[in-house]
Design brief:
3 domains, 3-stranded antiparallel β-sheet, DNA polymerase, domain 1, elongated, mainly alpha, 11% strand, 49% helix, 16 helices, hpI Integrase, Chain A
């Protein structure tokens, strides 16, 4: 037989729920308490206390329901009730649908493994810029990584200001860590030949094509045969593969067409001979006979071994891209054209990174 519940107390799923009106709005809040006789009595008493506070004009949403999404908007003592981990998690929910999967993973990692362990228990009004900067200085990671970790915290506090949770944003005073841009270290032709000489088959084709086109590794492994236009000696870059997922290129300028050298065309013809008719992707992992899952696998299984076997000084795979750009510029190619082929929105990056190769 159904148990009769007090007015304003209902059951939703396995939990008791309170229903009440406040500021001409109807609210329902779960108590996360099972439907038992003692809990029903406790819920009735809590509802009575809420209604009394509302009638007396001293109801504080955040005090009664600190974890509620409505507390962010309606609490009268927000800085004393809302914690940093709450605004960070709320921010992650907000950006979920408008953020690329790989970027969202980076944000979630920064929030889960760095920001919440360090600042999560603080009330939002307790966070001080000096504490953030002291913590940053203790981290033994690059300046770029520190900047990326700060992004969720900065944006969560911007939202807190916009929502009226705080009056001052402490993150405005937190200076971005210095980002030391690494100097390009392209391979010369002798080094390129040595690297390619220790590779065979589809693995050699992959690395050779990287040197000949300047594509990012994520773009290489997402290249499909539909993107190849041999008649006009070019390929069309429309997508990238990041952490195993196919996505649009990094920016709208990433959509581009790249001309093919004779060597690049030879690579594609070789790939055609080794690919089945069912293959959509140009380059594939010979171990599993399917598209490469990520650039990390290529770096670990192909690139590192090739560099070691060739005797060439180690540089990361991104230097194939630097090699492509520096070679074109050294030959007198127009910097604007190189910027387009590299997928940059303007030639500012080319000028700042490859200036010493521009005639």
């Amino acid at each position: 037989m159904d148990r009769k519940l007090p007015r304003g107390v209902t059951v939703r799923g396995n939990s008791l729920q309170l229903s009440f009106s406040y500021q001409e709005e109807r609210f329902r809040e779960s108590l996360r308490m099972p439907d038992t006789k003692p809990n029903i009595k406790a819920a009735e008493l809590k509802l009575a206390a809420i209604q009394h506070d509302i009638a007396m004009g001293k109801f504080d949403y955040g005090r009664h329901f600190p974890r509620s999404k409505h507390a962010m908007r309606l609490s009268q003592s927000l800085q004393q009730s809302i914690t940093v981990d709450q605004i960070l998690n709320e921010w992650l929910k907000r950006v979920k649908d408008r953020t690329a999967y790989s970027t969202l993973r980076d944000y979630a990692s920064a929030v889960t493994f760095h920001l919440i362990p360090q600042f999560g228990t603080l009330k939002i009004g307790e966070l001080k810029a000096i504490k953030v900067e002291e913590w940053l200085s203790s981290l033994e990671i690059s300046g770029k990584r520190k900047r990326n970790i700060l992004i969720p915290l900065r944006q969560a506090y911007e939202d807190a200001i916009f929502d009226g949770l705080i009056e001052q944003n402490p993150m405005i005073r937190v200076r971005n860590p210095k980002h030391d841009r690494s100097e390009p270290s392209p391979f010369n032709q002798v080094e390129v030949d040595k690297i390619l000489s220790v590779l065979t088959g589809v693995e050699r084709n992959l690395i050779c094509f990287a040197f000949e086109t300047g594509l990012r590794t994520s773009e290489l492994i997402a290249l499909m045969w539909d993107d190849v236009d041999l008649d006009n000696r070019q390929i069309h870059i429309r997508r990238a593969c990041v952490r195993g997922r196919i996505k649009d290129t990094k920016s709208s300028s990433g959509w581009r067409s790249v001309p093919l050298s004779s060597t690049a065309i030879e690579v594609l013809l070789s790939q055609q001979e080794q690919s089945s008719n069912e293959d959509c992707f140009v380059f594939y992992d010979p171990k599993y006979m399917k598209r490469w899952d990520s650039d990390q696998i290529i770096r670990k299984r192909v690139w590192k071994k090739a560099i070691k076997a060739s005797g060439v000084a180690y540089r990361n795979p991104y230097q194939t891209r630097h090699t492509y750009a520096s070679t074109l510029l050294s030959k007198g190619e127009n910097p604007l054209k190189v910027a387009y082929q590299m997928g940059h929105k303007d030639w500012g990056m080319i000028r700042s990174v490859y200036g010493r190769w521009i005639r």
